[in-house]
Design goal:
By secondary structure, the chain is α/β, with parallel strands linked by helices. The protein has 11 helices and 8 strands. The chain has one domain: Aldolase class I (TIM Barrel, Alpha-Beta Barrel), CATH 3.20.20. Helix 5 links the parallel strand 4 and strand 5. Helix 4 packs parallel to helix 5. The structure holds orotidine-5'-monophosphate (OMP).
Length: 234
């Protein structure tokens, strides 16, 4: 199986470069991509992205930028200059912010996929109540997805639950990137809107962001292989 067939992105949520590289060492860049998030990037900076790319991994830089349009667009441009495969911003930054990010990438020599985060998979309706929101996470995710689509963003981060409905209301090629993936035997941890890998793909998830179910498995490489096998056999 080539990388173009694989939906798996392994979240390298580690505090040090060594820990992240030790995990990457156990993974195959032909079978999965990797995600560098806030903890690892804040500890190690752009060097970790460069090092992973040198090891042939395609990198999703997950820094969830959320700021005024100019600042966010410049941050996205800096990510593009790093050569990453995918970068994300918060859709709730609004129409002008999303459009500015689109323009920044369009003007960059290297063009990562621009993805907007809708509603974090750790949130459920009780979190929405405490925020005073009168909508449900599913409705709000769909509204933010439609906004992102209309701003020319390449896709969204959402829970796998919402992936199908979002594609139906936008376009089949609008990418759905879904964290909150759990195997039957895994604990929920801080995630709330979860699905198994097979359920997620059946519900039109294009990419599955998987952290602890792989990185805390006895053998991360076997865990990835088992997920891939399951995905190609249903
Ligand atoms: O943008 C993300 O990647 C993200 C968005 C979201 O809504 N939920 C979410 O869990 N994530 C990230 O996906 C990863 C999930 O990790 P696990 O819960 O360990 O599988 C973490 O690195 C989160 O930062």
């Amino acid at each position: 199986m080539g990388l173009s067939m694989s939906p798996i992105i392994v979240a390298l949520d580690y505090p040090t470069k060594q820990a992240a590289l030790d995990m990457a060492q156990q993974l195959d860049p032909e079978v999965c991509r990797v995600k560098v998030g806030k903890e690892l990037f804040t500890s190690c900076g752009p060097a970790i992205v460069e090092e992973l790319q040198q090891k042939n991994f395609e990198v999703f830089l997950d820094l969830k930028f959320h700021d005024i349009p100019t600042t966010t667009a410049k941050a996205v441009r800096a990510a593009a200059n790093l050569g990453v495969w995918m970068v994300n911003v918060h859709a709730s930054g609004g129409q002008r912010m999303l459009a500015a990010c689109r323009e920044a990438i369009d003007k960059s020599p290297h063009k990562p996929l621009l993805i907007a985060v809708t509603v974090l998979t750790s949130m459920d309706s009780s979190d929405f109540q405490t925020l005073g929101y009168t909508t449900t996470p599913e409705e709000y995710a769909l509204a933010l997805a439609k906004l992102s689509y209309n701003c020319g963003v390449d896709g969204i981060v959402c829970s796998a639950f919402e992936a199908s409905s979002i594609k139906n209301h936008t376009h089949k090629d609008f990418l759905t990137v879904t964290p909150g993936i759990r195997l039957k035997e895994n604990s929920l941890d801080d995630q709330r809107r979860i699905m198994t890998p097979v359920e997620a793909v059946k519900n039109n998830a294009d990419y599955l962001v998987i952290g602890r179910p792989v990185t805390q498995a006895k053998s991360p490489s076997v865990a990835v292989q088992n997920i891939v096998k399951e995905l190609f056999s249903f």
